[in-house]
């Protein structure tokens, strides 16, 4: 196969840094290949992507050694425009990438810059829009699109040039599971149809592996430590050792002491070949765990009755007759489609959006007449977008801000801030400006700043978007810990693993209504709800079917319970 | 979707003109109305603009919200002018005709009232045209229009970016202000200026800092897609000029010529009915 | 004229959007009719200082044009031009400051404040009223009084808000080789 891109002993250091971010990279990408790059947050994945598309060195300054060539040409001798002819990038932030005022204009953007005239301009836009299935939305503004649709538009926008290499930086962050699945299909289709090579950076490994990938490149602290096929990598323990989450069925097989080898084709749940003895092992594992007990009843904490809310008067409501009751000390997950109203619901509870109909009470107290600030004394709220919460420049000041405003003493502030920063894995960076952090790190800053306040209840909107498994586990374990001490936790998430692993109960939103409210395992194994709310069945369920375990729900429930009680305890002790 | 352009898509001859034509006409028309205070000319322009409003099929209720602002502004300004200079009209028209037996500083004079009439007419001649532009121009086409009439495409594109991001910035402002209240920042209106500015800046700083990040991401995204590669660029939304476009622009250009001619004939910017008396 | 960088263009666009939103929805009344405490001038001072005179000029021009436009009272050209002038002049006077390299302290702050005050007094005390008289033939005493009040209020706003923004922004820019992980 023809070589498209080649890193040779490539090292890169940002000007502001004291040590290199990429170290001794050797990587070759051939025509038409599809590669997944995985690695913990901050290991240099985005930096690598920027080196390929030319933003390094044209936009971000630093020093590089070694060689990077695209089609045999040294990138140091190419202009940004020359690179962009063969490399198309879909940035993580599909909102910022959307520069046109409407879908059509945004898709046309690259063509306009190339002085393409009529009728070719309109024809190409129509054709490409059809390919990614946004041809009915051509005159829509970005505010009128869902997250998944915006993602499609970004892909269309780079497809108008006949690029040979497509780069995707975390394309699935913030997409609901079903939309994420569609995005993976779309990327796969585009790659096959155009013959372009594809590089995807993503934390949601299992979701990307849903369609075939030629190679996985595992990065750790600026180095490439593995570069092999998914089948090989999943047979090893490298992922787990470096803080990356394996697909759940792999974890379940490992718990069952099944020895996974590359020729079992473990890259995909549909292709994996299990021998009868393997199936038996899984079945024995299932049998060996007791069904978890139902919990007793507790006091009511938050009661929401008959909430209806519209952003603008006369517009159709975003929330319709919502009834929900959360008990003290519960850990509840809210899941559902993009745009179903989950964030809106939490904003209504916290008083951000007055003008709702219905009634909210908190610990028996009437909440409706309280201001945002008064409600915040009971409920801590971590917003979906960290940039909307951060109002200080330095990390320390941001995390201490809430305590300062409440007039806490400097000693108290110092100890609580230190504790929160350590939990969120930010202690090393405590004297950095927030602007030098990656997205996942910023999100942790906002979580830390709420944790210092020790509220009775915490609402987290997408706490783990863009987080790697290690930090994700650290934060979630801490939340679990305070939850056990009596703090009520409500989290909004698209991550089915997170829901299964940490929540006792899940509330499912679809189109402004609650369509289900049950234990997580029963929800995720109910096909009707899964379809209506754009969720995704877990691969555990399929594994159970493959191993002839009839009660799939029970298998999922026991797996989670095992992980929670046996594995996590063992790991914490170690 | 966009609070700025109140684009209302109803087929009419005015909607069919290109954005560039409408923009040129708006500028020429405003120049004509601004350069003279000739009462007759302003009255004709005012009447004509009302007629065009009818032609465009924009209804009063589409713009009543905007008009209420204008109305308040107009009244305020008229009162202010009167309070500060009740004899401004007399200076301009070089005569004084008291309307009441009372002749103190604030006594109404025919000249002053006539000046106010002119002031009012000036608005009548321009406001409907601006509203017409706002309601019949597709904002997407606006930037390409600017480029078409000779503004550099880079500048035209920053206009387009501004229009694109206004709704985003607005929403973000709202959200940041709520988030900071949730963390205990007082936004009360009852304090002095310095405190008000301080609490405003607890919203402003995050808003501006995210915007700075955004500037970086957007310029990267634009550069990656080849913005600024060439000296020219095409526009998806641009339309070619047709005959009605040319006619409109010529008519508006003639209006400017008339306005200037009137200024010369009148010997000043004002038409002075009091001289003949 | 040298070709504008993409960053300047984007800064102009976003700057104008911010100017518009702040001016249109966040006006705090100052007590004198037609004159608000205009936070947007603090922003404009900041944009002009960081991105230079061209971005300042255009952000002021476009932003103010849109504000007038959205109120539907026609475009009040004298003030639109004055806003553009503020952006241009601030950008020129502060061109020696290096806020985008993370430097803004002591002398720089004093320089920024003094230049904002001068720029606003020239702009609102002189440019705007003269244009008002030339274009709209308004009475001189009215426009000069309005102008002086605006000049006072806007220079205080710019001095406070603009300085806070510049300080905050300068802090976000790490100095060369300054980021070190600590234990
Ligand atoms: N512009 C910059 N200036 C200085 N340092 C930077 C810059 N961008 C990133 N870094 C640093 O480089 C390291 C790698 O960052 P990068 O964004 O490549 O991580 P990542 O692997 O993409 O992480 P994530 O999964 O959180 O997106 C981080 O420690 C970060 O602090
Ligand atoms: N400030 C707002 N003004 C008007 N409409 C809004 C606003 N915020 C959200 N909406 C609309 O309300 C609906 C629900 O949005 P919301 O953000 O609550 O969804 P969500 O369930 O949190 O979705 P996601 O999973 O993508 O975060 C969407 O259609 C959205 O476009
Ligand atoms: Mg990244
Ligand atoms: Mg949401």
In words, what does this structure look like?
The complex is a heterotrimer of chains A (574), B (277) and C (183). With 574 residues, chain A is an alpha/beta fold. Chain A is built from 24 helices and 20 strands. Chain A has a 6-stranded mixed sheet, with helices on both faces. In chain A, helix 5 (103-113) runs parallel beside helix 7 and helix 16 runs parallel beside helix 18. The longest helix of chain A has 22 residues, at 552-573. With 277 residues, chain B is an all-alpha fold. Chain B folds into 2 domains: 13-138 and 249-266, no CATH class; 145-224, no CATH class. In chain B, 69% of the residues lie in helices and 0% in strands. Chain B contains 10 helices and no strands. Chain B has helices at 13-16, 19-35, 39-55, 60-84, 88-93, 110-136, 139-148, 153-182, 193-224, 243-266. Chain B starts with 12 loop residues before the first helix and ends in an 11-residue tail after the last helix. Chain C starts with 5 loop residues before the first helix and ends in an 11-residue tail after the last helix. In chain C, helix 2 (40-51) packs across helix 6 (140-172) and helix 5 (107-136) packs antiparallel against helix 6. Chain C has one domain (6-172): Arp2/3 complex 21 kDa subunit ARPC3. In chain C, a hairpin with a 6-residue loop joins strand 1 (28-29) and strand 2. Chain C has a two-stranded antiparallel sheet with strand order 1-2. The mean pLDDT of chain C is 85. Classes of the chains: A alpha/beta (574), B mainly alpha (277), C mainly alpha (183). Chains in contact: A-B, A-C, B-C. The structure holds adenosine-5'-triphosphate (2 copies) and magnesium ion (2 copies). One adenosine-5'-triphosphate is lined by residues 147, 176, 311, 318, 336, 338-344, 384 of chain A.
Mean pLDDT of chain C: 85
Share of helix of chain B, binned:
55-70%
How many strand segments of chain C? 2
Catalogue the ligands: adenosine-5'-triphosphate, magnesium ion
CA-based gyration radius of chain C: 17 Å
The unreliable regions of chain C are none
Task: Tell me which protein chains meet in the greatest interface and how many residues each side has.
Answer: B-C, 69 and 57 residues
Q: Assign the structural class of chain C, choosing from mainly alpha, mainly beta, alpha/beta, alpha+beta, or little secondary structure.
A: mainly alpha
Shape of chain B: globular
**Largest pleated sheet of chain B:** none
Structural class of chain B: mainly alpha
The CATH class designation of chain C is Mainly Alpha
**Major β-sheet profile of chain C:** 2 strands, antiparallel
Determine the strand fraction of chain B and express it as a percent band. Answer: under 5%
| Architecture (CATH level 2) name of chain C | Orthogonal Bundle
Total individual domains of chain B: 2
Indicate the low-confidence ranges of chain B by residue numbers.
none
